[in-house]
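Thought: the user wants the 3D structure for the chain below. I'll pass the sequence to the structure tool as-is, report back what it returns, then summarize two notable features.
Action: structure_tool
Action Input:
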Amino acid sequence: MAYTRQQWLTLIVFAIADFCSAVCVSLQAPFYPMMAESKGATPTQYGFVFGIFELTVFIVSPIYGNYLYKIGPKFMFNAGIFTTASTCILFGFLDRINDCNAFIGLSFAIRIVEAMGNSGFLTASFSIIAKEFPENVGATFACLETCFGLGMIVGPTLGGALFELGGYTLPFVSLGCLLLAAASLTYCILPSYTNESKGGEEEKSGSMLQLIKIPAIALAAYAIMASSISIGFLQATLEPHLRPLQMSPFQLGLMFVLNGATYGLFAPVWGFLCDKLINPRIVVIFGAFVVITSFTLIGPAPFLPIPTTLPVCIVALVLHGTGFGAELVATFTSAHRDAVLNGFPDDIQTYGLVSGMWTSTFALGAFIGPSAAGALFDLVGFSWATVFVTVLHLLVAVFFILNMCCTARRRPSTGIYTKIHHSLAQTDPEKAGLITGTDDKTPLIRSISDSSYFSATSDSSEEYYVY
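Observation:
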């Protein structure tokens, strides 16, 4: 499918904004702890400064998703970027504060506001993706996630270099201003989006609670959370696990880049497969088993006689990036489709709800992952602690397999969702790929509005999805 000029412009400005936002969110990791300790803060105190970011995203993302269609995707997107950039700049002046309590308190406050801005930016961007690229949601999402992942890698590296060049304030001010420039670009290029519905009447989309009550979407939310728990687990415990290998700081830094780089490399592949070739649920199941293999090797699992060696750890991290990406991209793709198939209107309000759910559950896992990892590492050691992540992903695979089996009993499945108009159903049912099987072989079609089946020859003007 050839993109229009507007789609290409949207894709480019999104890529720039995603990259710059990720750089600003992640740049403080190498030197903020050192600055906090110089003010008298403990690791527990400044550790929560990092953790509060994900907790805030978890809380506010569903709220943004519920009200996206009222606030407006473009306004939320630009306000989110502007807030993230402004708070990044403010964070660079914390070194002027000498009182420990004031330093930590302001760190918390700025980080919370930054998380609110970042959450609004992500929720709106995911919704606009679904609106602008309805036939290539997975591939587009995956490409932008690659840009975001590159930003998360570049952020600490570039931040550390700027810190050495000009001290604590320089990286925050310079990179915050870069994000402000990106915000200006998106403000000028992005069109305004409205909640379109038939007959000019606003169609009520439902609530986040109604969305999560759909079994397929509840499973997707669990898979998203399990995936983010796995990456948070490694961020918190990989360094002490690798310490006996006596690696240099540079080598250790490369180990942390491995799974993120692999995720960025393969994410567009998973997006293309989910959009065009494979049922996203199959991709989720595959990803879950790959993550299970990864954590079995990197532990290594207490029941396997495998020594902890550098080659084994490298293979395990590459596998984790591959499986992690498969789960995240496929769940994002399938959640939008499942919402529409289960009665939610195909509009910006539904996109906002699903995007808010995705962002929120990912943030919850990112908050739980490091917290649980640290406690389990102290309690049972790294090898047994990895069993926790393995079990989580084993449940992902089992639940999705059961869901596919139950769905297959209710209707035939081609593995791909196809949007068709009723006129095609009437003129050429076979070309439309409609479901057949009634006594008189009349083609049947699944309605968006209430997920029931209707005769293709019935009098209607709606669009439908066949799965």
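Final Answer: Structure generated. The domain at 1-190 is CATH 1.20.1250.20 (Growth Hormone; Chain: A;). The longest helix spans residues 348-410.
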